[in-house]
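Late entry, written up from scratch paper. The run itself happened at the end of the previous shift, but nothing got recorded in the book at the time, so transcribing now.
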Amino acid sequence: MYLFHLSVRNLFFVLFTIIIAQACTSGGSKEVTLEMAQWRGDNRDGIYNESDLLNEWPEDGPELLWMYEGIGKGYAAPSILNQRIYVNGEIDSISYLFAFDLQGNVLWKALNGKEFLGEGFSATYPGTRSTPTVVGDLVYTTSGEARLACFNAGSGDEIWAVDLIKDLGGLESDFGYSESVVVDENKVYCFPGGKKNNMVALNRFTGDVIWSSQAMQDEFSYCSPLLVQLPERKVLITHSRHYLYSVDSEKGQVLSSYHIPYNEYTGEHCNSPLYSQGNIYFIGNEKEDGAIKLKISEDGTSLERAWQNSTVKNNFNGFVKVGERLFTMVKGNWLKAIDIESGEVVDSIKAATGSIIYGDDKFICYGMNGDVNLISYNDQQFEIKSTLKVKGGTDHHFAHPVVANGVLYIRHGNALMAWKIGE
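Output as recorded:
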């Protein structure tokens, strides 16, 4: 009888192992789905999976649900998950992670070391940079002075912390650490930027180093990376100051790279790359760089440029791909539509230059002058449907807007605001 029970138990174990193995192999893989909120939406592409958003706003703007003033200097956007809002803030030069309920009440705030205030020219852009990455009951966030920490999402208790400069030999930055870290089932990936520990994967539950890579041995350039499941492996796609490249997520090995030839030390390219259907899109702000489309191989070992449009430049305001078009804001107050096959600008409209996101067939563009434009694009025609003026807050209008459950969230320096834009 004992042997019978043992053999049955072994049979179940073998079947269970086969099922798990089949679910985890890369050929017909089923990735573990993590409950997550992060930089620029579910896929870090500026697309928000929303429905029933208003097609037009009232003449005096949508209803302002609440405004909280007191999160300090900076441009960090919020993340919203499980009826809570998380945003990085600054009080008296100290970095804090704030948690709010959906009514704008502070639930807790957790200290995260010193915040970046800058020196000389960079002192004109002080404060928080990074958007928290929320995964289930854990929040991962980085201060502008390079302290990466993991907090309990419910209580704000710190679970672990790593100083990217002191502990990992990272590079001090002219404009502070701006990376919004990317997370998978077991790892949190970061870019200290040093020669030895250029890129690092940490155990997301303990903060211990899983792998360290010299990568391109290049300085970081204020990029928040992508994590992409290619047909043959999972890769990180990111850029340093002089290269855009892919990295094996399991070992940290650089698989392929594209040289960004026109970077000047006095300039920056700060946008995250965008991945779609075997292609990487990127828009920079340096000389002839502009917009670029790269074809990436199924195993990540090859990057081949398909086209380049040096007339389309964008520093840190982002871009989105919708259908067969790439959309971005450019200098001179223009929203441009680029054909993804040819790389040519095919449509445009005058609108305040700033950050761009997309949801429910609508663009929301937060201009650096404080104007928020609701823009439609139908039959290859742009139309500004409504405009909202952001009146609260302080300093530069640099943050990226966020939409969650029919509510538009915008951080303007010291203030976090919420408008009802859903029906």
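Confidence is low (pLDDT under 50) at residues 1-30.
(Scratch paper discarded after transcription.)
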